[in-house]
Specification:
heterodimer; A: 471 residues; mainly beta; Immunoglobulin-like; seven-stranded antiparallel beta sheet; four-stranded antiparallel beta sheet; 3 helices; 33% strand; B: 180 residues; mainly alpha; Rna Polymerase Sigma Factor, Chain: A; Arc Repressor Mutant, subunit A; 2 domains
């Protein structure tokens, strides 16, 4: 017995047994077939070819040259009328940012793509031969060591929706944008400041693996801030560093060695803005954004996490409150009477389909959407459920939204009020009393639990409940 | 040709460190034992093909296999026994006392306490956001509705809360081991 833990001794005995058994079997091989020598020669040739290829790749990589491999596949199931939409032909722009990697190799870069749903999606990657791409390292592309271009059909996944302000995901973010963005247009809807921590040096954000080693991780700060942005200031150790943004789109990209030993990619974002002075804006090591507006330079130092303002020399003036169009809109011709049908599993209600027969407003981009949400009930504001229809809708068309588990919380068992809301971001948005800007209540319906039925709960809630009960 | 004696010697040197490494990351002594067994089973299957110039390289190779097993377990919620089964190994069963000793050596109770304390240190907003997202698995749109903030702000709170927990664990002494 050599170990502190008995189980390791038992495991050692078992490993020793199979190891020696294996050796015994190998020492008494079956008679080799007649073709064995030829097979060995072929195997040897194949090994030599593979070695030559591997050697060539390594030599090329060492000399700064890298082979180009297969392109990253396009986003599957993309729909021009839903989610982020599809890239608009010709509306893709590789920005002139070339940021060195902390340990060398191909520089990092950023691309902005405008989509069929009015979004500007920013994508990150390594840049080779004027193309954005990913590297076959750390488990990506079977470690082939090659450069894999990210074609124009690949978009970051988008889980936002109207007035979401943007969503960070693998490979980048999408934000609402108005007007021509990739051509340098100046009509912007929203902005984003974001960061990846523990990102893999291969830039294959979607294909993280457990094989990423400490020295292969990066901290990446990036964002698009709109046409008024001039520069960003970030903290690096004890120093503050200022980096100019790409004019027009206000893009910046900073790549740092990862300071922690985190093994997983994580990402965060702050709701940025292209309106000077409107916060919150900064996040993580980013401490200030400098804007130029009306001939004056000012800084937005709002902390995205706390909403507090960091001390800056020339703070931007606070923006005006909501424009007149965002004042409460009294109920009018847009009001509808929703209907609801219930989906059952046995005697349990699993979902409610809430419908309005004729949509009062069309949804033509990601700046608009319909949603359903239920009111809070109970002492801890339980019972709130919501669902979003993140796709285009024609005016007058039927809108149906599935709300899952509407009766999961006990306080909803006597009925719960569901509101259909039309969301819109932009200068002509409207709002209802008690709702956030851009949220207009189109109608409401009471969801009633039929007598004798019960409300189904999501699996995770049941698991948490049983866990709590077992302790 | 694979040398079983060299492999057993390698096992004797690395098994305990690997077991504790896996216990600290899986937070479960029994799972760590299973991952250790599968890691060494895979290591033996590749033993004859390994070319390393130093003990450090051998360690790094072993821990890379272990990380892969751990990643699979964290993603799928179960360990795999592919190499154990192929080799026809019988999985040893750890006794309660042994599991308790492993937990103690890996300082899991204090790590759990650190995690609990770190959770308490989060702002209420962040704690609620992390709980709703991680425990309740709420979609961000619903999480935002409950918190009364935009979806982007809800995402930021969850992200920063999880990062604060990561930082707290990395500051914890047991996490500062010299793993390759």
């Amino acid at each position: 017995m050599t170990h502190r833990f008995q189980v390791l001794d038992e495991l050692e005995a078992e490993l020793e047994r199979v190891a020696h058994e294996g050796r015994t079997r190998r020492r008494a091989p079956a008679r080799r077939a007649a073709g064995g020598r030829r097979a060995r020669r072929l195997a040897l040739m194949a090994a030599v070819v593979l070695l030559l290829l591997a050697g060539a790749t390594l030599a090329l990589a060492a000399s700064g040259v890298i082979l180009t491999g297969a392109s990253v596949p396009s986003t599957p199931f993309a729909n021009p009328s839903a989610g982020a939409g599809l890239p608009l032909p010709g509306q893709s722009r590789l920005l002139p940012l070339r940021v060195p990697d902390p340990v060398g190799g191909l520089p990092w870069g950023m691309r902005v793509v405008q989509t069929t749903r009015g979004l500007a999606c920013v994508q990150l990657g390594r840049v080779g031969d004027g193309q954005l791409g990913e590297l076959g390292l750390d488990g990506a592309f079977a470690d082939d060591g090659e450069f894999h271009p990210v074609g124009p059909g690949v978009l970051p996944s988008y889980t936002g929706g109207a007035a979401g302000g943007g969503a960070t995901s693998e490979r980048g973010s999408c934000v609402l944008a108005y007007g021509d963005v990739t051509g340098g247009g100046e009509a912007w809807g929203s902005a984003v400041v974001a960061e990846f921590r523990g990102a893999d040096e291969n830039a294959a954000f979607a294909r993280r693996t457990e094989r990423v080693l400490a020295g292969h991780r990066r901290q990446i700060l990036y964002g698009i801030l709109g046409p008024h942005a001039v520069s960003v200031t970030y903290r690096s150790g004890d120093q503050l560093r200022v980096v100019p943004v790409v004019p027009g789109v206000g893009a910046y990209l900073i790549v740092l060695p990862e300071q922690t030993s985190t093994e997983r990619e994580s990402q965060g974002e702050a709701p940025g803005t292209d309106v000077p002075g409107e916060g919150p804006g900064t996040a993580g090591p980013l401490v200030a954004i400098t804007y130029s507006t009306r001939g004056q330079t000012c800084e937005n130092g709002s902390d995205a996490e706390t909403g507090t303002t960091v001390a800056v020399k020339h703070p931007c003036p606070a923006p005006n409150p909501y424009p007149p169009s965002l004042r409460v809109t009294p109920p009018g011709s847009f009001v509808r009477t929703p209907s609801a049908t219930l989906e059952m599993r046995g005697n349990q209600v699993t979902a409610a389909i809430v419908s309005i027969p004729d949509a009062p407003f069309a949804v033509t981009s990601a700046a608009e959407a319909y949603s359903v949400s239920t009111s809070a009930c109970g002492p801890h504001a339980e019972g709130v459920r919501s669902a979003l229809l993140d796709s285009n809708v024609a005016a007058g068309a039927t809108v149906s939204i599935k709300l899952e588990y509407p009766f999961a919380d006990p306080c909803t068992r006597h009925g719960v009020r569901a509101q259909v809301i039309y969301h819109a971001a932009g200068p002509d948005a409207k709002r209802s009393y008690g709702r956030a800007p851009g949220e207009l209540v189109v109608g409401s319906v009471t969801l009633a639990l039929p007598r004798g039925e019960t409300g189904a709960e999501p699996a995770s809630t049941r698991a948490a409940g049983s866990l709590a009960a077992s302790h | 040709m694979a040398d079983p004696d060299a492999f057993v010697a390698f096992y004797r040197e690395e098994a305990e460190a690997l077991l504790l490494f896996l216990a600290r990351r899986s937070f479960d002594a029994e799972v760590a034992v299973e991952l250790t067994a599968e890691t060494f089973a895979q290591a033996w299957r590749a033993w004859g093909r390994v070319r390393a110039d130093s003990r450090e390289e051998m360690r790094a190779w072993l821990f890379t296999i272990a990380r892969r097993q751990l990643g699979h377990y964290l993603r799928r919620g179960r360990t795999r026994r592919a190499a154990i089964d192929r080799l026809g190994m019988t999985m040893p069963r750890a006794h309660e006392d042994d599991l308790a000793a492993i937990e103690s050596a890996a300082e899991l109770p204090s790590t759990r306490a650190s995690l609990g304390a770190a959770l308490e240190k989060l702002s209420r907003d962040q704690r609620d956001a992390v709980r709703m997202r991680v425990v309740d698995e709420l979609p961000y749109c619903e999480l935002a509705r409950r918190l009364g903030v935009s979806e982007a702000t809800a995402r930021a709170r969850v992200s920063r809360g999880i990062r604060a927990l990561q930082d707290a664990l990395q500051a914890c002494p047991v996490q500062q081991e010299a793993a390759p």
